[in-house]
Design a protein that fits this description.
Length: 125
């Protein structure tokens, strides 16, 4: 696997007033052939994410385009690689778009064991 083939996730956060914007962005990602997976909108806390969010999966080669699309909406998001260190993925290796959300890192996998893909029932990488 080359560096540009490295798997990435983006978690797009929204509040009730932003939900329509989040839906439109999610629809756009669903039409983008470079997006490997678009998750369901979760209107409540899920995993380490304490507020409503959904995720998209893509390769590093598409990272700049994903960040630009999210930034253009004004939504906040967490963009991170998918490595064997779930904690680092969501903290030190992550990029926040707009203000960060305090994650519940106690539910993340320990270093060396990242069940990120199986946990979501998707195997796209």
């Amino acid at each position: 696997m080359t560096d540009l083939d490295a798997p990435y996730h983006a978690h797009i956060y929204y509040n009730p007033a932003e939900r329509d914007i989040a839906v439109a962005l999610r629809d756009d990602f669903g039409r983008d052939a470079a997006i490997l997976f678009v998750g369901a909108m979760t209107d409540a806390a899920a995993g380490p994410h304490p507020i409503a969010q959904y995720e998209v999966h893509f390769l590093k080669s598409h990272r700049d385009a994903v960040v630009a699309a999210i930034t253009a909406t004004g939504l906040r998001a967490l963009v991170h690689p998918l490595t064997d260190d779930d904690l680092a993925d969501h903290t030190t290796l992550a990029q926040w778009i707009r203000e960060p959300v305090e994650l519940d890192v106690t539910v993340l996998d320990p270093p060396g064991v990242n069940q990120g893909i199986p946990r979501f029932g998707v195997s796209d990488f």
